[in-house]
Amino acid sequence: MEELEAAIAKMNPGKAPGPDVIFWPHGPTLWKSCKKELLEIFNLSWATGKLPKIWKLSTVIPILKPNKNASECKNYRPISLTSTLCKLMERIIHRRLMNWLIENKKLHFYQTAFRTHHSTTDQLFYLNQSIIDGFQEKPHKKTLAVFWTSQQHLIEFGVKNWSILSKAPELMAKRYYG
Q1: pLDDT tens, 93-139?
Q2: Cα separations (Å) of 49 from 17, 42, 43, 95, 120?
Q3: 3-class SS at 76?
Q4: What is the spatial distance between Cα 84 and Cα 28, in angstroms, rounded to a whole number?
């Protein structure tokens, strides 16, 4: 029951409903009267590995990208509105999975994506600290940083000469510092 209550508390009341048409603002009233039944549905789904069919459906809403021509399909991004009850169960599963991964030390120390209280800023701090540590050690410790992205991402961010990245290993091999 605690897992369900914690998941309910974290649900966002501003989210639009999916095909089940359960509006979250109605949620707290609804949940008080049927927590036990809801847990039975979740437990049955968990035990059998099956979801109610309506939970597998979504309502897809096309959203126009900023400053794009509305007459071209490629200028829209799809938003899928999924079942409110399915989102609630996903929260419970996510919490169980994250707890298991942390307790069993399955996440690398430097894994920051998709973890609470971690961010890409942490990664920048770790990189910066590794560079500083490398220069302070004698003989100098070698620090290599690899940044990977796709050509499409570079184009989206306005990078014109993306082919220079293919020369990165060659350029790094020729430069020594310290």
Answers
A1: 988 998 898 899 888 777 777 778 887 778 778 888 887 887 787 77
A2: 24, 10, 10, 18, 34
A3: strand
A4: 12
Cα(40)–Cα(90) distance, integer angstroms: 15
Closest to 114 measured CA to CA, from 128, 98, 125: 98
The residue type of 147 is: F
CA distance 49 to 104: 23
Dist CA 27 CA 25 (whole Å): 5
The pLDDT, as a whole number, for residue 77 is 94
Contact (CB, 8 A) for 79 and 60: yes
Given a contact cutoff of 8 angstroms between Cβ atoms, the answer to whether 80 and 16 are in contact is no
pLDDT band (50, 70, 90) for residue 177: very low
Report yes or no: 56 and 6 within 8 Å, Cβ to Cβ: no
Instruction: List the helix and strand counts (H, then E) for the chain.
Output: 6, 2
DSSP state of 138: S
d(CA 85, CA 91): 10
Strand partners, 80: 60
What are the tokens at 117? 């209280």
